[in-house]
């Protein structure tokens, strides 16, 4: 089922007839697929950036090492964990307890020229955000950093939206650790961090097979197909939905989902770089040009969601990130297109 929760995360769940069930039903007892996802308000991995072009390579898969957080809460710091999210435009941080409750949070924009900031400068911003969240470092048991790009051990080995001009691999974990009292840093891809958060305290909780699409500056994907850690090397944001002659993507290919459903893609389709993606979505109700831009993104996103359900048999697709937080004006369009493209060969479609 596809349902909008309070925090802006959306989930697409498979019904018992092994097809994409798509209804707008707010009654949890009738539709287990619609329930509140609190991960969006609990995690620091805002998943608003893309992995971009990524060389093959393993990611850190030890789920127990990945610590995440989110928005405002109390000041207690007993048994706390610090989560930092490096996006293409902002750095976010949150201190959480072992149940995912947020104790403190902070945000700092990366500013103009973020894509070309030197690794050391980015590490300084991460450290400042961390210091804003933590008063007693002795109480912090672990620190996790979610970052865009390909992650190999403690370094970023490739990234489309950050560190342009830098020499890869970028040893981000070591750069941050040197500024945070020697605390051990666990580095993980940001979409995988979002997926772990949704699996822990959010919309994907209880699902063995689930996908989380992060919709922001890029489109990332964290995927569970059984087990406790996300599958590595998953690039659903770079699945071809527009074909070889489709729009160019920052990864260098054409037709990628990211080229249609990421925030910059929606703004480009609108044709006015002075506005934000949220502005375009807000104008869609009364502006035909905005409506076309938003509707096109929603249509391609629906294709991506249905493809995940049909090819990987996932039980839930969770949409999160800045684009998803635009709310019903965007997500209702995704629902409509998914219904229109849903197959009709199986019984019971009219009930979904």
Automatic annotation (TrEMBL):
<dbReference type="InterPro" id="IPR000600">
    <property type="entry name" value="ROK"/>
</dbReference>
<dbReference type="GO" id="GO:0009384">
    <property type="term" value="F:N-acylmannosamine kinase activity"/>
</dbReference>
<dbReference type="Pfam" id="PF00480">
    <property type="entry name" value="ROK"/>
</dbReference>
<feature type="compositionally biased region" description="Low complexity">
    <location>
        <begin position="36"/>
        <end position="52"/>
    </location>
</feature>
<protein>
    <recommendedName>
        <fullName>ROK family protein</fullName>
    </recommendedName>
</protein>
<dbReference type="InterPro" id="IPR043129">
    <property type="entry name" value="ATPase_NBD"/>
</dbReference>
<dbReference type="GO" id="GO:0008761">
    <property type="term" value="F:UDP-N-acetylglucosamine 2-epimerase activity"/>
</dbReference>
<feature type="region of interest" description="Disordered">
    <location>
        <begin position="33"/>
        <end position="58"/>
    </location>
</feature>
């Amino acid at each position: 089922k596809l349902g909008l929760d309070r925090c802006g995360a959306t989930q697409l769940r498979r019904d018992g007839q092994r097809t994409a069930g798509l209804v707008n039903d707010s009654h949890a007892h009738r539709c287990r697929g619609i329930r509140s996802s609190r991960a969006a308000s609990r995690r620091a991995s805002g998943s608003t950036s893309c992995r971009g072009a990524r060389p093959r390579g393993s990611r850190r898969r030890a789920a127990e090492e990945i610590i995440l957080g989110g928005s405002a809460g109390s000041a207690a710091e007993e048994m706390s964990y610090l989560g930092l999210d490096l996006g293409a435009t902002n750095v976010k941080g949150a201190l959480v307890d072992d149940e995912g409750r947020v104790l403190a949070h902070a945000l700092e924009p990366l500013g103009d020229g973020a894509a070309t900031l030197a690794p050391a400068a980015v590490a300084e911003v991460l450290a400042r955000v961390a210091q804003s969240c933590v008063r007693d470092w002795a109480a912090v048991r672990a620190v996790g950093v979610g970052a865009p790009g390909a992650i190999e051990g403690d370094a970023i080995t490739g990234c489309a939206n950050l560190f342009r001009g830098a020499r890869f691999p970028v040893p981000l974990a070591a750069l941050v650790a040197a500024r945070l009292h020697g605390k051990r840093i666990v580095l993980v891809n940001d979409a995988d961090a979002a997926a772990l958060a949704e699996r822990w305290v959010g919309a994907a909780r209880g699902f063995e097979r689930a996908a989380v699409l992060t919709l922001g500056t890029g489109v990332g994907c964290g995927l569970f197909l059984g087990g406790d850690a996300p599958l590595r090397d998953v690039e659903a944001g770079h699945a071809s939905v527009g074909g070889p002659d489709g729009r160019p993507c920052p990864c260098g290919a054409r037709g990628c989902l990211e080229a249609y459903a990421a925030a910059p893609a929606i703004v480009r389709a609108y044709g006015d770089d002075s506005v934000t993606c949220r502005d375009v979505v807000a104008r869609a109700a009364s502006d035909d040009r905005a409506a076309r831009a938003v509707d096109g993104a929603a249509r391609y996103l629906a294709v991506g969601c249905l493809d995940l359900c049909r090819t990987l048999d996932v039980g839930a697709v969770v949409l999160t990130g800045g684009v998803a937080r635009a709310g019903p004006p965007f997500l209702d369009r995704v629902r409509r297109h998914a219904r229109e493209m849903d197959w009709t060969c199986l019984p019971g479609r009219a009930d979904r």
